[in-house]
Amino acid sequence: MAAEKTDPALVPSIFAPESTPAHAITHLAGFVLWITSAIFVVVGGLLVYALVRFRRRANDDGTEPAQVYGSGPVEAAWTTVPFLIVLVLTLATARIIHEVQDARKPVGALDVQVIGHQWWWEIRYPKLGIVTANELHVPVSQSSGDRLPTFLDLRSADVVHSFWVPRLAGKTDLIPNKVNSMWIEPERTGLFLGQCAKYCGTQHAKMLLRVYVDTREDFDRWVKEQERIAANDPSAAAGRLVFEQTACINCHSVNGTVANGRFGPDLTHLMSRATLGSGALPNSPEGLRAWIKSPEQFKPGVLMPAMNLNNADLDKLVAYLTTLK
Amino acid sequence: MNAATATAYLGPGSRSITSKGDFQPESTWTPSKGVVGMGCLIIAESAIFSIFVVAYLYYLGKDLSGPTPRQVLELPILNSICLLSSSGTITFALRSLRGGDTKRFSFWWLVTIALGAYFLLGTGREWHHLIYDKGLTIQTNLFGTTFYSLVGLHASHVVVGLLALLTVMGFAIAGSVKKEHAERVHVLGLYWHFVDMVWIVVFTVVYIIGR
Amino acid sequence: MNGIATTGDVTGAVPSRSAATGKTVFDHIHSWVVSVDHKKLGLMYIMFGLFFLLVAGLEATLMRIQLAVPNNHFVSPQFFNQLFTVHGTTMVFFVGMPLVFGFANYLVPIMIGARDLAFPRLNAFGFWLSAFGGLLLYFSFIGGEGMAGAGSAPDIGWFAYAPLTGKAFSKGHSTDYWILGLMVSGFGSIATAANVITTILCMRCRGMTLAKMPLLAWINLVMCGMVLIAVSPLTAAQIMLLLDRFAGAHFFDTQAGGSATLWMHFFWIFGHPEVYILILPAFAFASEIIPVFSRKAIFGYPAMVGATAAIGLVSVSVWAHHMFTIGMTSASNTFFAVSTMMVGIPTGIKIFNWLGTMWGGKLRFDTPMLFCIAFLFQFLIAGLTGIMLGAAPFNWQLNDSYFVVAHFHFTLVGGFLTMIFAGVYYWYPKATGRLFNETLGKWHFWLWVIGFHMTFDTMHIPGMLGMPRRIYTYEAGRGWGIWNLIVTIGTAIQVIGTLIFVLNILYSLRKGRPAGNDPWDAWTLEWATSSPPPEYNFAETPTVKSRRPLWDIKHPTDPDWKYE
Fold this sequence. Notes:
The structure holds three protein chains of three kinds. By secondary structure, chain A is of the alpha+beta class. Chain A has eight helices and twelve strands. The mean pLDDT of chain A is 94. By secondary structure, chain B is mainly α. In chain B, helix 2 packs antiparallel against helix 6, helix 4 packs antiparallel against helix 5 and helix 5 packs antiparallel against helix 6. The radius of gyration of chain B is 20 Å and the shape is elongated. By secondary structure, chain C is an all-alpha fold. Chain C contains 16 helices and no strands. In chain C, helix 7 packs parallel to helix 9. The longest helix of chain C has 35 residues. Chain C is globular and about 70 Å long. Chains in contact: A-C, B-C. Chains A and C meet through helix 1, helix 2 and strand 9 of A and helix 4, helix 8, helix 9, helix 10 and helix 11 of C.
């Protein structure tokens, strides 16, 4: 087994929150952990004490110990104390539920729509006219002062999925026939990892998420690039022909061409993304070629069929697609 | 509820715990096994029906297309009168049997079966009308789905009840049903009463609230 | 006069050699197959449950090998998805429920001084329905087709969320096998529950008022009541799913306006009480075994009864804590968080009462008691992680992650299965007439405890590091690999421990020392008759005056009924 090179900043730990709702959850979690740990120490300690103190000794005379059938005051005590503890916990919980779920959306917050599919994420920025897949770009915010949180609307085109990027927020489900919403407010730039957290079929495991938190300037630049229609490089015209005349356009869209399919991810800016197949493999020309030749190899059960192109057409197609930056 | 009414309601109960003949003259009263067992079945069945009722109520008004309850449903008044009065007739039958009058028992038992059969016939006619004249099937929309499943679940329980009643009728014709069988007939009667209670709920939910 | 039989008649319960009775092996098997005796049926349920424990344990082992390292290719994604579905379904319905009903079947009549359950033939019917349900589910491995035609067994998860289970997304018949196997065994469960309730309410021996019956009987009474109201919603939802899949109905058909969340509500209205149905018998065994090995009466019998009833009642109001992430209103989320934490109170009371029983006692650490002690610590932890999961915002992070998987394995393996082991070790001498080998028992215990904690303590960590559940593989570079490897190694240790347990069962059947009526010096009625008991249990049905009839006999100058 090769040694795992793990960048600690990428480990999606729920205890490394970097966004306002995630922080709220971690505070509650800390409080709950303190209380439950204390209960464990006290009760566990009493159990250990009883096991040691009241074990039958080797020189036991075989008589039965005093039989105690119960005690009203003791029962009352150990009913009341847990009740009070539960009361405190529920008050704390109710407060955080309200704080996160009922947060008002500030004017100027960024709106994103996420639509879950088997097994990829359709991502739309309705006010900006951007459509992409699997990777989200959002601007960095601050929790007070110059706030620019991102509010997400969650929908599903098929079965139940769940959007989970632990460092940014708790998870919320994407349910067909229902619109859910959640928000994030990242406080640091960088890449945040997540993935689908509700079993949604064969490739649930490979429905990965990448959230890029950019500086305001970087974000604006990204928006401008995404808003452009697809590149139309003349040297890739042969490949574009292959694309438009094969079944590709039944499922995929490329802004500015006849390809208007909605069943698969939008490919207008395919090469701006870091992975293919929602995290099944890294995005590169070689990877793209292998993916188109046989998606099943990387993501068994994937709904994209092998296109059965001959090598020449495949090369042209890849040459075209790699111009879609 | 004192011991006397408890006994009447829950059955004569058991004084001997075993079938191997141990007699315990001073045992305290315990309820009859048949009644408790049937009570458990009724509790479980009530839970199943409750889920279908919840689904029915949840989906009211949520159809995307197709006929609505108001457009197609008519109150099944006669059907309901028949089914609910069969609870009365089965009680008459049981009283006759307890009194030892097996002929009267057979008469009222037959009337009960006839009333139940009429109910099923009426339901069948209603469904025929809904399917062929109004175009409502279980596939049509959410109303069709929840209507046929809830009413159908109830009807299937009427069918099972009728089969049991017919079986007893067969034994009665053969002269095998006697006064000492009243307890068992009583337990079956509890099932029949339950089916009627469920109809009251279904009627209210489907034909009153739902329309 | 207490009329307790001490007959040495040992017909029936132990498969004996033909020399003694002139019967062939076929006769023996036949007598078991046609039996309506609660003891034979109880043992058949238990053997059925233990067999499927090994099968589902194998499924778990295969999954753990696949997950030991990132990007593994030990099993295909399709097969992995079938493995976790069938593992979960088997463990709940074909291990948990049969074991629960098996012990109820065997113990309830004998402990209340009755000769059998109220409806012996219904009892047999219930067992064979359950067995057939298991057969149906496993037949799907060779019949049926999975999603996208890729396999045979169901691969929809044990809670089978809609619309993944609809005809559109689950082609073929694998889902139908899931539905039918469970529906059929569900009818068996309802029948057996009604049977046990009727037995307890109608067939207690003379002198045994409800207030004098063993806690095991009380707990089974509440548990069976819960079966009646909890299994039924699942049956109803499954009927609806069948109508969707075969009759074109739209209950969960989101394209036609149906609701995916409605299935979730119906399923969890079943699902949450179901897990309490599974754990209540564990509490029952603890309430019988801990007193005997502490040499003291159970502390606070009325409080234990009250706590059991409270658990039964409150547990039907907490179901949506499995649904905190589906987008319910903050009011709903708050309600379910509160009710979830509330149900922890009666559970905590029970732990305190067991502690109170041990306090001031003279603790003996035979194998049944060792498992009880492990149970106490493990269930304490499980309950506390349950409180964490009940804090809804915390749940938004932890739900559907390996933290939840760790939590529920702590309750079901660390709680339920641990006490099943305790119960088997405690009552095996009664059922077979032979004592277990203590050495093998202790090996089993220590391997089990070490393996269990290595696996399930560790498993919380990848959950907290963001690892979702039900994934057939995971990325390297997320920090999950090392923890998954440790979890898998712990699995291997548990497997060895379990095999030693099976070995002990088989070995002691032949070579175990004779147990006698009452090897543990215990106090309830089952220890008053022979080991194994005759088919009729007692020559004369007993009369009791207190909760511990045998204590009264053994201590005639200091009987319980003077103090209760």
